[in-house]
Design goal:
It contains 15 helices and two strands. By secondary structure, it is mainly α. The protein has a single domain, classed as ABC transporter involved in vitamin B12 uptake, BtuC (Orthogonal Bundle). It has a two-stranded antiparallel ribbon. Helix 4 packs antiparallel against helix 14. The radius of gyration is 19 Å and the shape is globular.
Length: 314
Amino acid sequence: MLKSTVASLKTYPAIPIIVALAVAFSLLSPYFMTGGNFEAMMGANAVVLIAAIGMTFVFLIGGIDLSISTVISASAVISGIVMAQTDSVPLGVLTAIVVGTGFGAVNGLLIGYFKLTPFITTMATQLIARGIAFVLSHGIAVKGTPYWVLDFGFMSWFRIPAVTIVGLVLVGLSVFALSMTTWGRQVMLVGSNPNSARYSGINVPFIEFTVYLVAGVLAGIAGFISIANLGNAIPGVGDTLLLMIIGAVVLGGTAMTGGEGSIERTVLGVMLLAILINGLNLVGIPFYDQLIIQGILIFFGTWLAMKFSGQRSQ
């Protein structure tokens, strides 16, 4: 029993931090352990969860995607404009996914086939996506969101927000793709050792392309979900999300160097950050003090994940 518990903690290093934070905030605030608070927390972090799934795939091949947060913004703005002009929700969903797919394809093509550096490539697409979002929206919220989208943003089933259910469905599909398909196994092998992957006959550029493509698709979906969450398409919705997305993946225990991690770990990382931010707000910690605490926690969580990873490799 003890060995299995220790093994679980090594596999999921975020668990003890989550438990410690939950206990601490339960003692500090009477509102933390309430159904309404947990429901609000889940809904508020659905966008981060969906985008973090895409970032996890990118990390697993040893890449980075700095554009994912601004692609969320661009997808939301263009989708919001389309829905405002057509009043068609399906067309708005399709538009958001197409925009995200387009940016993901550009990233994947340049990184996978043209061998450009992921950091520089995605920094460039980050700037382009942000510029598109602000130019098309004139820097203000895009109004005219259909009522069905607004209703969906407030909808819950069994105290689970509908936007969170979308995220959980995507989590399930991603876990299946990573653990039960040839593509998923190839992603892990490319991240672990690209040279071995090439010698094994794996088309490494294609795997890199598809991973960035998937990340783009998920960013597009996250963009649409942000409209449901906020009521309008906000051009700056992604400005504060990048560090949260990366932080959630890292805190969950997925290595940025590739080949080490899982979608389940990222879910725990998102949960950890959600509990931290929610708890700090409940106890009245100022915003900039929260940033300091988040930074310290990311340092600690990264060290913990690396320590456990090192133990597994011995």
